[in-house]
Structures are given as C-alpha cells and as structure tokens.
Amino acid sequence: MWFRIACIATLLCGAHAACSLSPGKNTHGENMKMVYTSSPTECCNECSQVAGCIGFTWVKSNHQCYLKSALSPSTDDQDVVSGSMMPGPAPSPPFNCSVFGCTCQGFADWYGTTGGRKRDWGCASEPTAQAWWHDHDCERVGSSKIYPSLAPGSRRGGCICINGTTGTTSGLHHKVPCAPLLKVDGLAFSVTYNVPEKCLSSSCGLIVDVHGFTMDGDAQDANTNMRVLGEQHGYIVVQPNAPLNNWNWDPLGHPCSGLLLPNATPGNQTCFVPPFDKEPAGDRAINNWVQEALAVKAWNIDRNRVHLTGFSEGGWVTGRMLCNYPHVFKSFVMLSGASNADPFQCIKPGAPQPPVLVNQGLNDLSSTWREFNAGLQSLRSKWKLGEGKVIAGNTTCGQEWEQFDCNAFGCTCQGFANWYGVRHSLLGKSAGCASTRTPWKWYNDHKCKTVAEPDVYHGGCNGCYSRTRYEGPTGVPLEVLSYSYVSDYLFKGHCFPGSSNIQKMLPWKESFAFGCPASQERKLGAKAAYVIGEEAMKWFLAHEKAGASVAVIV
Q1: Cα 483 to chain centroid, rounded
Q2: Can you name the residues that pair with 494 across neighbouring β-strands?
Q3: Which of 290, 317, 526, 541 is the most exposed place for a label (fewest CB within 10 A)?
Q4: What percent of the chain is predicted at pLDDT more than 90?
Q5: Segments in 325-387 forming alpha helices (H)
Q6: Could you tell me if 305 and 245 lie in one domain?
C-alpha cells in the first residue's frame, strides 16, 4: 500500500503543518474548496494556508482534497483520510524591558551582563533578550564598555534561583545552587531554606540566618536551631552558603581582607570601603535571593515579618545589610560581628534606625570586645543614643582580665582548684573552667599543684552576662548581650551561648564546636543564662508590626 499509517490517529508535524489524521473516517461538514494533492500531508499543508480552514478530507482513489470551514460527526469511509488542524505553538510573549527601565545599563544590571569583545551574557540566555541588546546597539563602536552596577541594591532580577515548581514546596531545600549570582573557584553560592507546611496556606515571615567563616548553613543551624524555631513560629528560614565557606569577597567577587588576629591591631578591611557605594558580591547574592523569595506567590511572605541575623563573618554581613537594607528587614540580630574592625562603620549619622540586638563575647578573641565597643560608641553618636541601661543579667560582668579577683575563692591554690574545677588529666592538669589566660596564669604564678576536692561548688564555671538597652529620640531599641562564656577552641568567646553544638560536627561541616559554655565547663555544671537562637527569635517576634516603619533620626 502506497500510504501507511500505524495508528488510528496520527500527528503530522516537522516541516509541515500539524494535523490530526483519522484514516477511514469522513468528517463531512462545510466544504470551502477542493484541490488535488498527492497525500494527506499535502492536503494538511493546503488547509494551513487558507484562512478559516479547520480540517479536510482527502480521497485516496482520486487524490481530491476537500478543505472545510466546519466539521460534522464522522462516518466510516475506507476511501478517505480526514484531518483537523492542530493549534500551533503559542507565540513567544514580547520581550519586556520595563523591568529594567529599557536602558542598556539597566539590562546589564538586571542580567549581570558585561559588554565588550569578550561579552559575558550573565543570565541573559534567552535569544529574545540578546536580540534586544543587539537591536538597541548596546555596544556602539567607540562607546564605553558596559559593566553591571555594583551599587548596593542593584538587583540581578533576570537571574532566577528559585524553581517555580519544585523550589516552592514545603520542607527542606538543601544547598540549592545559584552560580550566576556568585561563583568562586568553580564553587557556587547556594541557599538552604526550610518552608513550613503552614506557609503554603497562610502568610508567613522570613528569616535570613548567615553563617560565619569555615561554616555553612548546616553548621549555622546547629547553633541557632533556627529551622525548628521557624517551624514553630511560622517563618521560612533561609541559610545561604558562601563559596569556600567564606563571605569575604569584594564587589567584583575577588578575595578581600580584614580578619583580626587575637588581640591584634586590625588592618584596613577591603571588602566594603568608603564611600560604601560598591556592594560585596556575597551581600548582593543574598539580597537578590531574598527579593526573589518575596515575590514567590506560593509563599505570600508578610513583609512586616522579614528579619536577618548572622554570626562572625555573617555578623559583619549583618552590619552591612543594616546600612543598605533597613527598609527590607524589620529587625537585625548581630552575633559576634566585629571581626573586621567596626561592624557599624558604614552607617551614616542620622541614618534609619531599625531594632538591633547584638550578641558579643567579652572574651571573644576574634571579634574582640575592644573593636566592637569602639564601634558601639560611634554608633551611639550616629543614632543619638543615650546611656545604656542594664535590663537583665549582671551589672558587673566584664572581661576576664578585668574581672579576675582571687578573693572570690579565698586567694588559695585549693580555693582556685575548687572554684574552677581543676582536675588531673593525661597531660598534667585540666584547667576546668579557668579556660582563659588570666586565671590560669594566677594558678601557675602561685606554683599551685592542687586539684578540686570532690562535691564542691565550682563557682568559677557560672560565667555571667549583661543585657544593656540603648535608646534615643526615636525610642527604637539597640540592645547588647555581652557575656563571659567561652568555647573549647582558640577564639574562646567567639561562640553561641546556650548552643548544644559542643561537639564538632563532621569535619566538612565545621572546623570548631561553637557552643558555649563548652563541654568541659558543662561537665562541671556551667550553663549559659540564655540560648542565643531563642533570644534571636524573641527579638524578631517582638519587632514586627503592621504599618510600622524604620525610624529616622532628625
């Protein structure tokens, strides 16, 4: 047989018009005209070229092709093949340049496109987008090469990181990469985020929880417990992951510096420098992801419930976000954020003042109290804050080299051993809770050899904290939680008070156990007076009010 069809209904497509064929069926209907064709395929093509033609009947015996404007219920007829036109693909929507202002610079900012002979399209992968760039002569001969803006708030909105189907479901989405926003040495910026089930049926908040150097989002969560707290209180929790576990990338994505050595004089940080008009690449990636999340309809995020916190390098990110995005985040919690000199350096006098809670170790050997306190006093002047008032904890809590007083244990070797829980160990003596330099120096200077007696009170393991509130003309609070607790690693008070993370996670998850007091101190009865993750959540819940705006100092 010269014409073979393997099934009852066959689709003809490719270079020809698309038709649905029904061999052995006559659809009758309204004939428009008759033409001769060699096959049903050509009959289909003829129909596609006649306005109003919706189908045809092709006669095998004489090759007559009847084009039809209307079809009727079919009847059996083995001498014919009938067909109906199939709808073609929907036309592509016209390219919308309004989202970036319909300028070449706006295009570069939106897609991260760099012009020039070695053009990098960034996220402008669609032919219609690239055609717009060329049609608007965005690389005119003799004109300056176009670069994406590095200014704070410049958004790569054309870079999509959240899958509109699989990426918006409830549950944990782990390390979802978004390389177009930031990529270093082949490693991409990624985001771990948890969406509570309730957030798909009712409005929820959003918390951004930023890890420190050597950490990732999982290590951060092991210390803040923010995913569980978010489930309890109705928040999508977002924990971004930096390439190489490091947020110190300058505006162009190159390494930058500013890390303090323990008790050393800091160098000039190079990540975000005056006049603070070029945003570090990691900050830009985080903001871009947050802006995309706020537009996800399935989540319906309440913009009055958007908050940010970060530890160490993430605390420094928090300080920069405080400068650049006080209108996005309802409140901020900075955890040990002074590693790179003044964490508030970029805040200008009279700048908007959102609610801020700071958690800062008195015995922190990375984010030193000295650097933090200098920045705090400067910030008080910028925001016109009054004297601090201790609202909880100890009014006398201070750094161990300032607060050490042997009278607390009677200034005897046995008193010292009992007070701090000194024990025998394989390496000689375990310092117990005398884990900082000053008390242990006293023990050695007095040539002490004693260890703690059984069943005695280890008062030196208690530690202390103070919670101080500062307010100014706006009435918006800045509160500082200062604490003496230390952890079991070289940076001591650079830690999360009350965290259960006192045993190091798997080596590729974190370099240190960041919980404090540390395991040794806890064995001797030490306990933090608060759990920092819970305090952060309380702060967020207390500072979200519909219609409230960021206070501006005048």
Answers
A1: 28
A2: none
A3: 541
A4: 63
A5: 369-383
A6: yes
Is 110 within a domain? yes
Give pLDDT, residue 263. Answer: 43
Q: How confident is the model at residue 424 (pLDDT cuts 50, 70, 90)?
A: confident
Tokens of 214: 């050597």
The reply to whether 150 falls in a domain is no
Top-confidence residue, 195 or 458: 195
CATH value at residue 330: 3.40.50.1820
Q: Are residues 432 and 292 in the same domain?
A: no
SS3 sequence of 164-183: CCHHHCCEEEEEEECCCCCE
Q: What angle do CA 113, 116, 119 make, to 5 degrees?
A: 50
Q: What is the largest CA-CA distance in the chain?
A: 119
DSSP-assigned letter for residue 243 = G
The string of pLDDT tens digits covering residues 485-538 is 988 888 888 999 999 998 876 555 677 889 999 887 788 778 899 999 999 999
Residue 122 domain-assigned (yes or no): yes
Contact 476, 551 (CB under 8 A): yes
Q: Which residues have C-beta within 8 Å of that of residue 241, sequence separation ≥ 6?
A: 175, 189, 190, 191, 192, 211, 216, 217
Contact 86, 18 (CB under 8 A): yes
Can you spell out the DSSP letters for 412-423? Answer: SHHHHHHHHT-E
CB neighbour burial string for 81-119, b if at least 16 within 10 angstroms, e if fewer: bbbbbeeeeeeeeeeeeeebeeebebbbbbbbbebeeeb
The H helix count followed by the E strand count for the chain is 13, 22
Q: What DSSP character marks residue 441?
A: H
Which residues constitute the domain of residue 442?
A: 401-461
- For residue 550, the model assigns a pLDDT of 61
Residue 223 tokens, joined: 């210390």
Residue 468 has pLDDT above 80, yes or no: yes
> Would you state the torsion angle of the CA atoms of residues 452, 454, 457, 459, taken in this order, to the nearest 10 degrees?
20
Q: In the chain, helix, strand, coil percent, each to 5?
A: 25, 25, 50
What average pLDDT does range 207-226 have in this prediction? 96
Q: Compute the distance between CA of residue 306 and CA of residue 77 in angstroms, rounded to an integer.
A: 68
H-helix segments, 63-126: 104-111
- Say if residue 476 is in the same domain as residue 494: yes
Q: Is 384 exposed, middle or buried (0-12, 13-18, 19+ CB in 10 A)?
A: middle
Q: Please tell me whether residues 201 and 81 are part of one structural domain.
A: no
Number of domains in the chain: 4
Residues 6+ apart with CB under 8 A from 21: 5, 9, 10, 11, 12, 40, 44, 81, 82, 83
Looking at per-residue pLDDT, the higher value among 366 and 177 belongs to 177
Indicate whether 53 and 103 sit together in one domain.
no
Residues 53 and 77 in one domain: yes
The string of DSSP letters for 7-44 reads SSSEEE-TTSPPEEEEEEEE---EEEEEEE-SSHHHHH
- Supply the pLDDT for residue 137: 87
Judgement on whether residues 27 and 56 belong to the same structural domain of the protein? yes
Residue 483 lies in a domain: yes
Query: Is the pLDDT reported for residue 413 higher than 50?
Result: yes
Looking at the fold, whether 16 and 118 belong to one and the same domain comes out as: no
